[in-house]
Amino acid sequence: MANLCLKICNQDRVGLVLDISRVLAEQNINILSMEVLPDIMYLEIESLSPYEEVLLNTQLGEIPQIGNVNRISRMPHQEREQELKTVMDTIGDGILAINQQEIITHFNAAAEKMMSCKSGKIIGSNIKDVFISKVPLLEILHNGLPYNNREIIVTTVKGKNHYLTSGRPIKDANGIVIGAVAVLKAMKDVEELVYSVTKPEINSFEEILHVSKVMEHTINVAKLVAQNDSTVLIRGESGTGKELFARSIHMASPRQEKVFAPVNCAALPDALLESELFGYEEGAFTGGQKYGKSGLFEYANGGTIFLDEIGELSFSLQAKLLRVLQEGKIRRVGGNREIDVDVRIITATHSNLEEMLRKNQFREDLYYRLNVIPIFIPPLRERKEDLPLLIESLLFKKNHRLKKHVKHILKPAMDKLLQHDWLGNVRELENVMERAVSFASHGEITQDDIILDHITPTTSTVTTPTSNTRKLKEVLEEMECCILHETINKYGTSRQVGKILGLSHTGVLNRMRKYNIPSRTDSL
Questions:
Q1: Fewer CB within 10 Å: N-end or C-end of the chain?
Q2: Ranges for the ACT domain (predicted)?
């Protein structure tokens, strides 16, 4: 049975506590706890029978200066402890407190979740018995100094955990350190918080300027594949906007609220790229961070990772990437444990991967894992009807950036822009427009202000999987037909296919007729 708690109203006098204690002793009642305040006393004793409780109240009431004696549900210190626990459990960060004897006194719900330990088993234990590794909280007991945002790896019987922690001493009225308290943040939560605050504005399909049908078709295909988690391989010449498409696919996908992590595989040496992608354990190599580091696959868990210039990946990294695609697991450099990751992978290249396969420069198994959904971005010379729109947009942006007021492009200048082949695509156009705005005078761009790059084309930038005789429209239609076939075979009804692909029922039927895909009696 629950203990009996009493609130005794009184007029304070010397000897009152002694008189109350004498009454309890005569009835052989043990005092479990007592709180004495001016004119109020609280008692916690063992449970009594109804008769014994009435007798005790009568005897207490006969003591001089005793007023009302009332039963209460719990002692004031118990209420304070419950209120403190409620407050601590509503905090999202882990809170851990110890006393002067290194005994854990507080361990909130967030800390339970982080460390997979129940507070009932932790509170009352020596902190050295719970944490195998040294924790900075103990330092406070000896030096009394707080610490801020210290990165630590905490080792418990449950394993290793990575945290950012801040600690403060607990002092008595005389300034003596009688304990310490620490706040713990899981590094994954810290990284997500930093990303949410600092992430750049990610592009969407609405920002891809175009009027050409070939670009419209490419965007529609990309919108379709954005709705699922299929691996996408974006093909196109340098400067066509492959990363723009990758970001747009991410923003149109269910993962849009999570991390988008781009990395250029050609920009880093193999060893550095491996550690950036997969992370490394403590001591994996000289100069690494003290506690190791998580890689981009862990950082982007739940989101999207974009691997640009995938053709530049070394054979060893190709093998590790293949395992991520097949198993959804990574292993840090220098580590021996596998870590599950849920990441959508989008890759891009301007290289001819098929030629690299023939020369044994790219793994065939990885190629087929990456080439699930190929998207071919047309070069600017094949969609020149988009040039005026792009030119006007770039004129506005360059005016703003360079603090100029160029309002017009004279017709000879525009003709010169429209007749150029743009081997560097949009990136080359952007450079030319920046030069033109810089050199322009009197608020208009003349033919002389258009200074073009002159690059001799090479055959190393072929992007189609077969020969260059195939038109882009043919390749895109073939891919659309393949997607329709697979989706219809998987989901059966055209209405369900429409929901999956984001098309109307009529749109699905029209495409089925276009590609001569037989209708099924249960699909209408």
A1: N
A2: 5-74
Burial (0-12, 13-18, 19+ Cβ within 10 Å), 87 = exposed
Q: What are phi and psi of 67, to 5 degrees?
A: -100, -125
Coil vs helix vs strand at 36? strand
Collect all residues with Cβ–Cβ distance below 8 Å to 368 and sequence separation of at least 6.
none
User: How far is it, in rounded angstroms, from Cα 184 to Cα 151?
Assistant: 10
If you write DSSP's letter for every residue of 175-203 in order, what string do you get? Answer: S-EEEEEEEEEEHHHHHHHHHHHHPPPPP
Instruction: Report residue 459's pLDDT band, with 50, 70 and 90 as the boundaries.
Output: very low
**CA terminus-to-terminus distance, the chain:** 68
CA distance 228 to 151: 37
8 A C-beta contact, residue 222 and residue 397 = no
Backbone angles phi, psi at 406, to 5 degrees: -85, 120
* Contact present, 375 and 245 (Cβ < 8 Å): yes
Helices (H) and strands (E) in the chain, counts: 21, 18
pLDDT of residue 464: 43
One DSSP character per residue, 307-371 reads EESGGG--HHHHHHHHHHHHHSEE--BT--S-EE---EEEEEESS-HHHHHHTT-S-HHHHHHHT
Tokens read off for 42: 């609280």
